[in-house]
Fold this sequence. Notes:
With 203 residues, the chain is of the alpha/beta class. Helices cover 36% and strands 21% of the residues. The relative contact order is 0.21.
Amino acid sequence: MEHELDRLAVEVYAAPPSCGPVRLVAVDGHAGSGKSTFTGLFATALAARAPGGGDSPVGVLHLDDLASHEAYFGWTGRMLDQVIEPLSRGVSAHYKPYDWNARRFTAPRALPPTPVILIEGVGAGRAALRPYLARLLWMERAPDESWPRGRSRDGIGLSAFWDSWTVAETRHFLADPSRPHADTLIRECREGYKVIPGPSATA
């Protein structure tokens, strides 16, 4: 179903810039729902479908780089200061990615103001970011299916982390749900993805 992603890419480029010259597109969903894999494939589709022909660079920001052991969801300030503010002025953002093994933030990483930047991670569609988003995509996979996938992927060594994470994620989405505001639902199929109008688009 590659044509589904191609069609979605065309729709994204048709949207006006949402943060300075950039179209910010959030890819949200439960941990283990397949956000990272989809984001990589969609970034490729976006690059290939850029207006004017030829590949166009597509930025990707993984929220795992902004979260930390101390604050799974306490990254809003860093996102606004280090990413949103400079991009809104049309200049490169510089954010400090978190090293989950060393448990510390590392040297700043540049994020240029490309025509499209994908923000991938749990909570990417939170209320504080929605005013800056061109589109909010939601991975349509329930937590009771997503979380076991994530646990299986990460192995028994991260069981304690997952126990803590699932509690924090549940609390986050109860307080600040993203799915009701999604423009598009992304459903993974046996081959490819199905793109479905989201609650925001059908309201």
